[in-house]
Amino acid sequence: MTQHIPNVDHAEIRKFEQLAARWWDANSEFKTLHDINPLRLDYITAAVPLAGKAVLDVGCGGGILSEAMALAGATVTGIDMGEVPLRVAELHTLESGVAVNYHHASAEQFAADHPASFDVITCMELLEHVPDPASVVAACAQLIRPGGHLFFSTLNRNPKSYLFAIIGAEYLLKLLPAGTHTFSRFIRPAELTRWIRHAELQVCDITGLTYHPLIKRYRLDTRDLDVNYLVHCQRPAAA
């Protein structure tokens, strides 16, 4: 019998576990996540109101987006393969009083146990950290209910993204710890949308997320997918 190999890179997990205690410090290595979180939330809620929705946050880390979606009225479940970030997330719910259900699981594991269980799924800044991102997309397609909405975000793969996301963000501006990203794992929009369609999902929108270093501000920009970008897609409603 073939043994299932989990879709996880343990070296990637260790990177984030070593920093996990500072996850909720808005001036730490996770400042970028705190800065872009309102934009991510706005992008999601512009497409689908979260109040009353069952939401799954895949690769939730320390729970920054998970808690924001819960505060918007959703019933949120967060899953991650990093045990330490999950403990940080759980501890933060005790401080904040925001209810989120956290589980140590991969998307594939969770899909096997909870098919078609969620109205909204978010998978932000995860795909570029796993060995088989297409498998995560397929698992998310299994987890979403007919008519449900999915949101992915990742990094484009081109010379500009190498310059901005690695040389600029990690080494010059120090917005992220050096070594956070591996350029070869960046994902072109055409690749991601191909995986999405192969999973029988429909692409609704693609929007870029840009950073202006002089004013130190992020913004959504539909015309610029060169570095960071978000994809909104949907599972067709049942006939």
Features:
239 residues; alpha/beta; Rossmann fold; 38% helix; globular; EC 2.1.1.64; polyprenyldihydroxybenzoate methyltransferase activity; UbiG_MeTrfase; Ubiquinone biosynthesis O-methyltransferase
CATH superfamily caption: Vaccinia Virus protein VP39
Number of strands: 8
General shape: globular
Order of helices and strands: HHEHEHEHEHEHHEEE
Structural class: alpha/beta
| Architecture (CATH level 2) name | 3-Layer(aba) Sandwich
Tally of individual domains: 1
The number of helices is: 8
CATH names the topology as: Rossmann fold
What is the name of the CATH class?
Alpha Beta
Distance between the termini: 37 Å
The level of helicity is 25-40%
Secondary structure layout plus pairing:
Layout: H1 10-19, H2 31-47, E1 54-58, H3 64-71, E2 75-80, H4 83-96, E3 100-104, H5 107-113, E4 118-124, H6 133-143, E5 144-155, H7 159-172, H8 189-198, E6 202-212, E7 217-221, E8 228-234
Helix pairs in contact: 2-3, 5-6, 6-8
In short:
Pathway: Cofactor biosynthesis; ubiquinone biosynthesis. The protein has helices at residues 10-19, 31-47, 64-71, 83-96, 107-113, 133-143, 159-172, 189-198; strands spanning 54-58, 75-80, 100-104, 118-124, 144-155, 202-212, 217-221, 228-234. With 239 residues, the protein is an alpha/beta fold.
Explain what the structure shows:
The protein is an alpha/beta fold and 239 residues long. The chain has a single domain (8-233), classed as Vaccinia Virus protein VP39 (Rossmann fold, 3-Layer(aba) Sandwich). 38% of the residues lie in helices and 24% in strands. The protein is built from 8 helices and 8 strands. It has helices at residues 10-19, 31-47, 64-71, 83-96, 107-113, 133-143, 159-172, 189-198; strands at residues 54-58, 75-80, 100-104, 118-124, 144-155, 202-212, 217-221, 228-234. An 8-stranded mixed β-sheet has the order 3-2-1-4-5-8-6-7. Helix 5 packs parallel to helix 6 (133-143). It is globular, with a radius of gyration of 17 Å. The N and C termini lie far apart (37 Å). Keywords: Methyltransferase, S-adenosyl-L-methionine, Transferase, Ubiquinone biosynthesis.
